[in-house]
Amino acid sequence: MEALLVGRLPKGKDWRYEPKWDGFRCLAYKRGHTIALRSKSSKPLERYFPDIVRVLEKLAATNFVLDGELLVKGESGYSFSDLQMRLHPAGTRVHMLAQKQPATFVLFDILETEKGANLMALPLSKRRRFVEQFWKKYCTKEQAIKLSPQTDSMSEAMKWLHSPGWYIDGIVAKKGTDVYVPGARVMQKYKRIRTADCVVGGFRYGTDSNEVGSLLLGLYDNAGRLNHVGFTSSIAKSDKPSLTKKLEQLIHEPGFTGNAPGAPSRWSTERSAEWKPLLPQIVVEVSFDHVTDHRFRHGTKLVRFRPDKSPRQCTMEQLDNGERKRTSSHLASQAMS
Q1: Is 203 in contact with 216 (CB distance < 8 Å)?
Q2: Residue 268 neighbours by CB distance under 10 Å
Q3: Both 160 and 268 in a single domain?
Q4: Which long-range contacts (CB under 8 A, 24 or more apart) does 116-125 make?
Q5: H-run or E-run covering 70
Q6: For residues 2 and 110, what is the distance between their CA atoms, to the nearest angstrom?
Q7: 185, 217: one domain
Q8: pLDDT of 273
Q9: Which domain holds residue 212?
Q10: Residue 228 pLDDT > 90, yes or no?
Q11: Between the CA of residue 223 and those of 151, 165, 219, 226, 295, what are the distances in Å?
Q12: Are 134 and 7 in contact (CB under 8 A)?
């Protein structure tokens, strides 16, 4: 079951609120001693999370279907970048990462009990009681399995989103009366949208095009280095011809003097990784919803060009409120107790 992005959280006595964790959505199946982990697109994840497989194998329950989120801790909290490192083709690398940075499986729903009862036709309010009972009975001694908090108070949920120590992507709203409908966007998710002024340090051409496809965004750190922090591709089609000419006149190395766009990965082609460096003269304002490891977690939306803004005014400090300081101990003791 999925969530629809909304501009505001719904209100009402039937609504329940949960943190929106920034990880990999996962369904965990157990049949006897066999464990299966499936992504939102039904792809197998067991080989990438052998540590979670081992923990689930050890549970006294020999049958279940659980719905939750896979997370990995970085230096200062749960990190999506560190989580992505698990998707590596080399098994030795995956096992090394599993030992160095063990994953966490955060539970928020249960679809089948240890006795084989299918719960999908039950309302969320009843499924929640089942998942709480399951976690208390089988998982309290396993540090790798946490229970995601839930509240019927919108104000409490918003405190999660705005308070230091909570590293979440947003808030998910679920109706207590809703049954579980696979593939349907029955739930609602809310993200806090913010803006930042960024330097355009480079650009990429569009696929099979001689016009700009995306702008590469940068921010200056305290040492005066321009670091790549993300991209925006929401450029109006009518603006692309003139913008492309302007960008091509500014092509000049190095573009970024700190962290730069990476080389091709196994998810990108050589063409998609190519980029043109620019003189740091263009400033744009972009909107974003989440920051991870000093980078925009998703693509941003172009709000406007800022000819009135000096590039040197575009600093990393703008992300301080986007990437709130967080501690794993706070999450473990308060968010999932």
Answers
A1: yes
A2: 12
A3: no
A4: 116/63, 119/180, 120/179, 120/180, 120/182, 121/179, 121/180, 122/179, 122/180, 123/176, 123/177, 123/178, 123/179, 124/16, 124/174, 124/175, 124/176, 124/177, 124/178, 124/179, 124/180, 125/16, 125/176, 125/177
A5: strand 63-72
A6: 15
A7: no
A8: 59
A9: 194-319
A10: yes
A11: 43, 27, 11, 9, 17
A12: no
Query: Which of 109-123, 288-302, 317-331 shows the lowest mean pLDDT across its residues?
Result: 317-331
Looking at residue 308, its amino acid is D
Give the pLDDT confidence of 148-189 residue by residue, as tens digits: 999 999 999 999 987 766 778 789 999 999 999 998 889 999
Looking at the structure, do residues 293 and 268 belong to the same domain, yes or no? yes
* Catalytic residue IDs: 20
DSSP code at position 323: S
Structure tokens at 90: 């080399």
- Peptide bond before residue 10 is cis, with ω within 30 degrees of 0: no
- Of the pLDDT bands very low, low, confident and very high (cuts 50, 70, 90), residue 250 is very high
Q: Would you give the DSSP letter of residue 143?
A: T
SS3 268: coil
Q: Could you tell me the pTM of the whole model?
A: 0.71
